[in-house]
Amino acid sequence: MVAILETKNLGITFGTHQAVQDVSFSVEKNEFKSIIGPNGAGKTTLFNLLSGQLKPTKGEIYLKGQQITGSSVVERTRLGIGRSFQITNVFPNLTVLENVRLAVQSQAKLRYQAFTHYRSYQKFEEKALHWLHVALLDHKENTLAINLAHGEKRKLEMAMLLALEPELLLLDEPTAGMSLEDVPAILQVIKKIKEEGDKTILLIEHKMDMIMDLSDRIMVLFNGKLLAEGTPREIMDNELVQSAYLGGLYDEFTSQS
Amino acid sequence: MELFINLTINGLATGMLIFLLAAGLTLIFGLMSVLNFAHGGLFAWGSYAGVWLYLLTNSFIAGIIGAIFIGILLGFITEKWIIQPVYGNHVQQILITLGFMIVLSELLKVIWGPNQIAVTPPAYLTGSWEIGNILIIKYRAFIIVVGLLMYGLIYYMLKHTKIGLIVRAGVINKEMVQSLGINIKRIFLYVFMAGAAMAALSGMLIAPYAGVIHGNMGMEYAILAFIVVVIGGMGNITGSILAATLVGIIGSFMAYYVPELSLAVNMLIMAVVLLFRPQGLFALKG
């Protein structure tokens, strides 16, 4: 199998605090991998390193065998990394359709053409509608994004992310801040993406049932370090992981290092 | 009644000219929050270059094309070498664009001399139509039509083209547009050039309307354009045309009844808007 993403001894230090230390892992093509760990374990920081928001102080990142450690966010987006944020990010004063169309036309690399050919424009709209359908947002296309419910905004964000057609999706707590009724819908969207089978997905989540259900493999991050990696079954049975979540490990693990 | 209609038409014509100047300014500020005080300089250059060509060739159309051409050219130069080095720093933007404005104005005097230049409309736009008791001066009607056409064009481009969508999204959140993989600086250069072209067009159109052009005309009209941008809301084209019409009509009535107060009143409207609705009357951003 080909590793689409690989890190080697990745680390970042803020002052004296080592937020991420020596994390080496690889993600295979079309794999669904989740990252779990207690609050402050460095999960979002790790995502920031992968998507380029932060530059590592140590280690290397490879995308499809190509070194991207120093690449900018825009470069990584163009290379095929798409990322969602814990905080919702949509354009409030554009319609739902316009939000997605912007992502579609960016993907189409027709960025700088001012006068559109009528038919290509229509093709963008069709594509945008397709992504809205995938994200379960049918019949919302003419609503202003500002008027969507929170859960719908997250779906819209997902549609925009998909419209960029990334090979590697980084999803940072897609259900964060969602009401309980909305969670099954976003879960359905993620499942649908997974079933299409042409995306590699890295997911950060706290909802364990969701993770167990979706993931091919799980990584456990603790105190900035990679504590364990394995199939959902292996992780469930791992004693080290159990104690990390149930407490008691903290002192032991830090005194070791 | 006759006076009322005449003053209104006069105000509308002035409003359209201010709108053309303000349209570029509002998008430039809305998109990259760049304070461009050199905009009036581009306007004056459009006026001088256009009039020079008009008087040389005796073709008004040639003058308009020349003005737009010089606007695009100067817009490109200004954005590349004056604005780009000071992205994100308002104090530096004010200083350098204000300085550039002075350079542009003085260069006009170096090239075309310090005296005012008299301009008259071409024959086919001279005179007036008489409808009942009301005289409609042709050139004023022409300006209003051009202004509305330009508004229609900008509106269409913003609503129905790819670059228009990027501009509207950029006004809301430019960081996010970049995170979608769009190079917004390139888009901004185009917007700046289009804004400069409209300013130059406005300068050319104002020449036969005012009858004379002079080196300091840039500053004079740029102030009105800034007032319009503030009243209309940053980055909002529809807000700009409404505010420009308001400023034009009020200016025209005040100039007739209380001429001493005509600029002061516009300043007063701006102050009131800033007090009660600092984001502008028609703002898009909250």
Automatic annotation (TrEMBL), chain A:
Gene3D superfamilies: P-loop containing nucleotide triphosphate hydrolases. Keywords: ATP-binding, Nucleotide-binding, Transport. It holds the Pfam family BCA_ABC_TP_C. Residues 5-248 form the ABC transporter domain. GO terms for molecular function: ATP binding; ATP hydrolysis activity. It comes from the Bacteria. PROSITE patterns: ABC_TRANSPORTER_1, ABC_TRANSPORTER_2. GO terms for cellular component: plasma membrane. SMART domains: AAA. This is ABC transporter ATP-binding protein.
TrEMBL record, chain B:
This is Branched-chain amino acid ABC transporter permease. It is a multi-pass membrane protein. Keywords: Amino-acid transport, Cell membrane, Membrane, Transmembrane, Transmembrane helix, Transport. InterPro entries: ABC_transp_permease (IPR001851), BCAA_transport_permease (IPR052157). GO terms for molecular function: transmembrane transporter activity. The keyword Cell membrane applies. Its main location: membrane. It holds the Pfam family BPD_transp_2. It is found in: Cell membrane. The chain crosses the membrane at residues 12-32, 52-74, 94-112, 139-158, 187-209, 221-247, 254-276. GO terms for cellular component: plasma membrane. One of its GO terms (biological process) is amino acid transport. The lineage of its organism: Bacteria, Bacillati, Bacillota, Bacilli, Bacillales. Belongs to the binding-protein-dependent transport system permease family. LivHM subfamily.
